[in-house]
Amino acid sequence: MSLFTRRGLLKTAATFGAAGVGYGAIGRFGGWAAASPDPVVLRTAKIQATLMDGSQTNNVLTYGSAGMPPVLRMRKGEPFAARLVNAIDDPTTIHWHGIRLPNKMDGVPFLVQPYVYTGDHFDYAFTPPDAGTFWYHPHCNTLEQMGHGLTGVIVVENPGDQQFDAEVVLNLRDWRLGDDAQFIEQFRPRDAARTGTYGTVRTANWLDQPRYDAPSGGLVRLRVAISDVTRIYAFRVEGGEAEVIALDGNPVPRRFSPDALLLGPGQRMELAVRMPDDEGATVSLRDVRGTKPKVIATLRSVGASLKRDARDVAPLEPNPVPEVDLSTAQHISLALSATAENVPSNGICGSLGYSFWAINKVPWPGDTPDPTAPLAELKLGKSYVIDMENLTPQSHPIHLHGMSFKVLSSSTRQVEPLISDTYLIQANEKVSLGFVADNPGDWLLHCHIIEHQKSGMTSYVRVV
Ligand code: C2O
Ligand code: CU
Questions:
Q1: Residue among 307, 171, 135, 161 at smallest CA distance from 245
Q2: Cα–Cα distance for residue pair 391/410, rounded to 1 Å
Q3: Measuring from atom 3 of ligand 1, which residue has the nearest CA?
């Protein structure tokens, strides 16, 4: 066996990288791919799963061989590597939602990487700069692939964070199943042109109202990711004290208890929950939106009370997101609208065959071999403010890849200066989102209601 094994070389590279040499040359988000640890293998698979009334559903998609895609654990500032192995009958990619990484690792077909065809693989490697709750999903034929199961949660740990007594991670999503527990059509055009098509079966971690045990009187870190393709939630917690400590992967400026907190597809919430002292008592996370409020999951107190104090939850360390300079920032206007204009569907990752939506009057489904022009060309290192206006009667969770923004102001409400990657804009709202264009490449910006995304509400910015 050769002395220069791959591992040996990797070790050398790691030492080299740790000494700080090369970091500057590669750049802030250049990562240090050579120092990557052994990759986590994410193999797409078609499986059967029990999602409804004990019946088996066929044609469920996952990463791995059974059940929900794994919760991936990474550490802030430490290299991570994953090999996507595509074993399903459809090209795919992985996008690491909310993680600020090099453009080549962003998983958008055509814009940044080729399709990963059946039988092929693709190696992803990056170093997450931010701690928090993120998630991963394909960016190809997304309505079908995500709708059938390919959505997983990512936890980026900060070794400096305080220890909680327990941690629970929830992956929230629906499934469009018929009475026989088999998939039905993923969307209806008339719904795609409105709020998006809802699933028929609602789950948390692929379960109906799961219950998790946690120490009585203890402090629980509850991480919630909305990985559904359509549903907007209004969160409330009952039965215990709970405070939102982070949203979309970043600590909130001021903690608050969620009172019908609206979050849309792609968004995440972290709660610090203080469990009741009495053994057997439960705390429930509810969705109170619409006419059918629903318990999503419950936590049950077990054991003798730890008698913890909710005020003992230390503030989370802010992520190293650069501060937008409002004195020099250039403004970019962005209008979300409905459209009647038709674009042909093209590419395997292409459109749904309809265009209902547009950004600055251009309907583009994204993930196609013929991208439209970028929304704007941004200068590396400069500050920008996106002034976004929603001219439609629906809400849209608008997601920016590659960079985090700060919510500056809204025409309809008082906003907190949250750092985020996804903003749920309401009907007739105008919002200003500021950021530093510090990450070179082409970065998508789209609605995360996937039918909206794939029927026109997609664009991108180019940072050079
Ligand atoms: Cu969560 Cu363009 O993605
Ligand atoms: Cu939308």
A1: 161
A2: 14
A3: 97
Residues 66-87: tens digit of each pLDDT: 999 999 999 999 999 999 999 9
Residue 328 alpha carbon to ligand 1 centre in Å: 29
Q: How does pLDDT run across 393-423, given as a tens digit for each residue?
A: 999 999 999 999 999 999 999 999 999 999 9
Q: Phi/psi of residue 272, each to 5°?
A: -100, 115
The end-to-end CA distance of the chain, in Å, is: 44
Give counts: helices (H), strands (E), the chain.
Answer: 5, 30
CA angle 15, 17, 22 (to 5 degrees): 145
Which atom of ligand 1 has the smallest separation from the CA of 97?
1
Computed over every residue of the chain, the mean pLDDT equals 90
Q: Which of 433, 447, 441 is nearest to 462 (CA)?
A: 441
Whose atoms come closest to the Cα of 425: which ligand?
2
Ligand having the closest approach to the CA of 445: 1
3-state secondary structure of 144: helix
In angstroms, rounded to a whole number, what is the distance separating the alpha carbons of residues 98 and 248? 8
Q: CA–CA distance from 333 to each of 95, 388, 389, 390, 440 (Å)?
A: 26, 6, 8, 11, 21
415 in Cβ contact with 454 (< 8 Å): no
The ligand with the least distance to the CA atom of 453 is 2
Compute the distance from residue 453 Cα to the ligand 2 centre, in Å: 7
**One-letter amino acid of 238:** E
Q: How far is the CA of 340 from the centre of ligand 1 (A)?
A: 24
